[in-house]
Design brief:
With 285 residues, this protein is mainly α. It has 12 helices and no strands. Helix 1 packs across helix 2, helix 3 crosses helix 11 and helix 4 runs antiparallel to helix 5. 31% of the residues are buried.
C-alpha cells in the first residue's frame, strides 16, 4: 500500500504544482505572449525597417546639408557600432549625396516617405495586438504615421551626441539614452494607439521596451561591429545586410516583448490599485 500511495502522492503534488503554475501570473502570461506571435511580429518590423525606414534615412541624408549628413552618419555608426571599412561605407553613403539627390528627385523623396509609413503602420498593428484593440480607422491614424516617422528621424539624428552625453561622458550618455528611449516608446504607443490607452497604463511597456532596446543596443555596440566587419570580409557587401537584419529582429523582439509584458503589468490588480492610489493622492493634494 505504501508503494502504491507514494507515486500517487507524487503525481498529485505534480498536478497541484502545474495547476498553481497555470493559475498564477506566469501561466496567464505565456498564452498571451504565444498568441502575439512575437517572432513573426519582430521579423515583420525588421523587414519594414530595413526596406522602408533605412531608404528614408538615405533619402533624407541625400537632401540634408553637409553638417546633418555627417551627424546622421555618426549616429548610425554609433547605433550600429560599425568601424573600419564598414564605417567608411556608411560615411560614403551619406556624404556623397549629389548623385543620389539628382536620381531621387522631389517626387522620389515623397514616394519614399509615403512607403516608409509601412514601418509605422506595422508598429501600430503590433501595439494594437499587444493591447487587444481593433484596428483604428485609417482617416484617424494616417497623419499619425507621418508624425511618428518625423520624430523617429529626429531621434535617429541625435543618437551620436546623445550617446556621448553631449560631451559630458558615457555615463551621462547612457542615462540620457535610457530616458530618451523610454519617452519615445511611451509616446509612440500613445500616438499610434490614438490615445485609447491611458498614459499611466502605457508606462510599464515603455520602460521595459526602452530599457531592453537600449541595453541590447549598447551590448550590440560591442559585438555587432566585429560581426559586421567579419561578414563583410567573408561574404562581401551582402554580409552586413544579413547581420543587420538579424540584429533588427533581436531589437524588435525585445521591444515587442517589453510592450506585451507592460500590458500584462498595467492590467494587473496591484498596478491598477497603485495607479488609482496615486491618482487619488494627486487629486487630494
Amino acid at each position: 500500500m505504501a508503494r502504491d500511495t507514494a507515486p500517487a502522492t507524487r503525481r498529485e503534488r505534480a498536478a497541484q504544482a502545474v495547476a498553481s503554475l497555470r493559475a498564477g501570473p506566469l501561466g496567464r502570461l505565456l498564452p498571451r505572449l504565444a498568441a502575439l506571435n512575437l517572432v513573426e511580429g519582430a521579423m515583420r518590423l525588421a523587414a519594414q525597417a530595413f526596406l522602408a525606414a533605412l531608404p528614408l534615412l538615405m533619402t533624407v541624408g541625400a537632401f540634408a546639408p553637409p553638417g546633418l549628413k555627417h551627424l546622421l552618419a555618426d549616429s548610425l555608426s554609433s547605433v550600429l557600432g560599425v568601424r573600419g571599412e564598414t564605417l567608411d561605407e556608411v560615411r560614403h553613403t551619406y556624404t556623397a549625396g549629389g548623385s543620389t539627390r539628382q536620381s531621387v528627385g522631389a517626387l522620389g523623396a515623397f514616394l519614399t516617405l509615403a512607403s516608409a509609413t509601412a514601418f509605422s503602420r506595422a508598429l501600430q498593428a503590433v501595439c494594437e495586438r499587444c493591447w487587444h484593440l481593433p484596428r483604428a480607422p485609417m482617416r484617424a491614424v494616417a497623419w499619425r504615421w507621418l508624425i511618428w516617422l518625423v520624430v523617429w528621424l529626429a531621434f535617429m539624428f541625435v543618437q551620436a551626441p546623445l550617446r556621448r552625453g553631449f560631451g559630458i561622458g558615457p555615463a551621462t550618455g547612457l542615462a540620457l539614452s535610457l530616458m530618451g528611449s523610454v519617452l519615445l516608446w511611451w509616446w509612440s504607443q500613445h500616438l499610434l494607439l490614438s490615445g485609447r490607452i491611458s498614459w499611466s497604463s502605457l508606462l510599464p511597456g515603455a520602460v521595459l521596451a526602452g530599457v531592453g532596446t537600449i541595453t541590447l543596443s549598447w551590448a550590440g555596440h560591442l559585438l555587432l561591429s566585429n560581426a559586421m566587419q567579419r561578414s563583410l570580409d567573408e561574404f562581401g557587401p551582402l554580409g552586413p545586410v544579413f547581420t543587420l537584419l538579424s540584429w533588427l529582429i533581436s531589437v524588435f523582439l525585445v521591444a515587442i516583448s517589453g510592450m506585451a509584458l507592460g500590458e500584462a503589468v498595467a492590467t494587473s490588480a496591484w498596478y491598477r490599485h497603485t495607479a488609482a492610489f496615486h491618482a487619488r493622492a494627486e487629486a487630494e493634494g
